[in-house]
Amino acid sequence: MNYTISNDKLRVQISDLGAELQSVVNLADGCEYIWQGDAKYWGDRAPTLFPICGRFFGGKYTYRGKTYEMGSHGFAAKQVFAVSAKKEDSITFALTDNDATRAQYPFAFALELTFTLCDATLHVDAAIRNKGEEILPAAFGAHPGFNVPFTAGHDFKEYSLTFGEVCTPNQMGITPEGFYTGRCRALSLVNGTTLPLDHEQFVIDGIFMSRIANRVTLSAESDPHSVTLDFADFPYLGVWQEYGADTPFLCLEPWCGLPSYPDVSDDLEYRHDTFHIASGDEKKLRYSLSFR
């Protein structure tokens, strides 16, 4: 079921399945910013990544001597969230552990996602709470896709990513199968801030970066519309599309977590880039999307 929040600038729809963003419409001119999930290219829109980002090698991990299976990006995207609070311009979705989650992830947890509109910005606040007695290992990320071009008559190659300050990102090595190699190289930006976009950048996979400015804008000089992502709580940014000569979307993905290394079976207690949340504690994160 889809739920709607709105103000005088934007109308936003979010599904209770995965607490997945479905639509952001500019009320002044009807511009739809969110990719609408055409299965010809990619059938999702903005999946929630929890309790892992990326994938385990072999789709399996161990925890205290027992083996568990878990798919790419975890299970949150396939779980129905409850609506725990709703106002005209904000909504909170909540997921707690259940039989299906415990079969893959033997922990007691609560995940809350709150979507709040403030002028032309959508804030997304995540809270991961440990309801159990043992340490909760978890990661979290977002995977929103955006229509590119935003406005008809423009071409994908007109668009670029512009960071909020000069930086030299590390581009992390990702195998064609989606695993992290542990290797990085410097990614050169025009004037230290701008990455021009081209479909050929995504032949193998996405562009995954660390050591970056925590604000980035997806825009074209000739298009009046743009999206700015603020992600100060997230150490990694993925930029991804399903490769194709005419792919009409781009994902901007703030991650707190990375895929497994190739040929390495993970023990979840010791997995890299994972929060370790004490019993009764919670981890809070925010990212924001500003639309023009």
Give an account of the 3D structure:
The chain is mainly β and 292 residues long. 2% of the residues lie in helices and 45% in strands. It has one helix and 25 strands. It has one helix at 99-104; strands spanning 2-6, 10-15, 20-26, 48-49, 60-63, 66-69, 82-87, 90-96, 109-118, 121-130, 136-138, 140-142, 145-147, 159-163, 170-174, 180-186, 194-196, 207-210, 215-220, 227-230, 236-240, 249-256, 266-267, 275-277, 282-291. Strand 21 (236-240) and strand 22 form a beta hairpin.
Q: How much β-strand is present in the residues?
A: over 45%
Computed CA radius of gyration, to the nearest angstrom: 19 Å
Q: Given the C-alpha coordinates, what overall shape results?
A: globular
Structural class given helices, strands, pairing? mainly beta
Distance between the termini: 27 Å
Sheet having the most strands = 9 strands, antiparallel
Provide the helix percentage. Answer: under 10%
Strand runs, count = 25
Instruction: State the assembly state of the protein chains.
Output: single chain
With strands numbered from the N-terminus, the spatial order across the biggest sheet is 7-8-9-10-25-20-19-14-17
Brief summary:
The chain is mainly β and 292 residues long. The chain is 2% helix and 45% strand.
Give me the secondary-structure topology.
Layout: E1 2-6, E2 10-15, E3 20-26, E4 48-49, E5 60-63, E6 66-69, E7 82-87, E8 90-96, H1 99-104, E9 109-118, E10 121-130, E11 136-138, E12 140-142, E13 145-147, E14 159-163, E15 170-174, E16 180-186, E17 194-196, E18 207-210, E19 215-220, E20 227-230, E21 236-240, E22 249-256, E23 266-267, E24 275-277, E25 282-291
Parallel strand pairs: 5-23
Antiparallel strand pairs: 1-2, 2-3, 4-12, 5-6, 7-8, 8-9, 9-10, 10-25, 11-24, 12-22, 13-22, 14-17, 14-19, 15-16, 15-18, 18-21, 19-20, 20-25, 21-22
